[in-house]
Specification:
CATH topology of the largest domain: Creatine Amidinohydrolase
CATH class of the largest domain: Alpha Beta
Radius of gyration: 23 Å
CATH architecture of the largest domain: Alpha-Beta Complex
Helix content: 25-40%
Shape: elongated
Number of strands: 13
Largest sheet: 3 strands, antiparallel
Distance between the termini: 65 Å
Number of domains: 2
CATH superfamily of the largest domain: Creatinase/methionine aminopeptidase superfamily
Length: 326
């Protein structure tokens, strides 16, 4: 290592991720500096390689985009299989197995992250992945799961009624989230800062919560005071690529939210979670809904890579339980 470092002006290395290898690098630097006192130079500048590599990962080329389309297609097969097989009485882990079996049967090399299959009140627990409880008639199930194909990840969430029919309250919450997601996706385009689609989602969610009687007051007041946060407590998206939460900064060198560019891929994933402990209309308690798609920024707008996965009320009700009924 000292031989390689001798004569170099700068070193690209991420200190802090591997203590043992850090020591080897420091030893190499010390030896290189000893050589440089007699002849030549040694690194005087240390650069985090992510400043270069993460930016390369953030902007996908045509081959990467094609891999992500393949991952999205396999993920669509898994979610559709899960919807068709869902029936009251099965367990969350059984639904997880059906979804992931479809991934592997259609060429996925891995799941992109541990699948979330959350029935009923479990859907109000962010990052729930116990997946052991039975699915009960009259409740919703939230499935957050994606396949990995040729090293590229997909990340999709769909929510559907276990018995194939939304109750009026479930449908009301679902349609708020769906409208919010559609508003968010519409804001994904070149030149728009990467936070704008979240603001669009927040506004539609807040309007819907007021209309449903879960919040009181004006839309602007509820947003300004973050009152919607009791029901929608996370951001609306993240970069996607080789990792499910992929590399790349969200702010530019001036600490402003960066502008979207063609080749970037982001999720758009608003949600509403009415935890049973919240003081609100009892009819809505225990309902958790999230809808998530993978959105490619294109030169003239965006492309929904996961659009083939049903998400309208009519599409879902037509598909859920199809295999079980057959």
């Amino acid at each position: 290592m000292a031989r390689y470092l001798a004569g170099a002006q700068r070193l690209y290395y991420a200190f802090g991720s591997d203590e043992a290898f850090d020591r080897r690098v420091f030893q190499g630097l010390s030896a290189a500096r000893g050589h440089s006192r007699r002849k030549g130079r040694s690194p005087e500048e240390f650069i985090e390689p992510g400043t270069v590599l993460h930016e390369m990962r953030l902007r996908k080329d045509s081959n990467e985009i094609e891999a992500m389309r393949r991952a999205a297609g396999v993920t669509a097969l898994g979610h559709r299989a899960g919807m068709a097989a869902t029936r009251p009485g099965m367990h969350e882990y059984q639904l997880e197995a059906i979804v992931e079996y479809a991934y592997y049967s259609n060429g996925a090399q891995a799941v992109a992250y541990p699948s979330i299959v959350a029935g009923g009140e479990n859907a109000s627990i962010l990052h729930y992945d116990t997946n052991r409880m039975p699915l009960q008639d009259g409740q919703l199930v939230l499935v957050d799961s994606g396949s990995e194909v040729d090293a590229y990840a997909s990340d999709v969430t769909r929510t559907w009624p276990i018995n194939g029919r939304f109750t009026p309250e479930q449908r009301a919450i679902y349609e708020i989230v769906l409208a919010a997601q559609q508003a968010g996706i519409a804001r994904v385009s070149p030149g728009v800062n990467c936070r704008e689609f979240h603001h669009a989602c927040v506004r539609v969610v807040t309007e819907g919560l007021i209309d449903a009687g879960l919040l009181a007051g004006t839309v602007d007041e509820n947003i300004e005071k973050n009152r919607y946060h009791d029901f929608f407590m996370h951001g609306s998206g993240h970069w996607l690529g080789l990792d499910v939460h992929d590399a790349g900064r969200y702010r530019d060198e001036n600490d402003n939210y960066r502008r979207l560019e063609p080749g970037m891929v982001t999720t758009v994933e608003p949600g509403i979670y009415v935890h049973p402990d919240l003081e609100c209309d009892e009819r809505f308690k225990g309902i958790g809904v999230r809808i998530e798609d993978n959105i490619l920024v294109t030169p003239d707008g965006n492309e929904n890579l996961t659009a083939a996965i049903p998400k309208s009320v009519a599409e879902i009700e037509a598909l859920v339980g199809e295999t079980a009924c057959a």
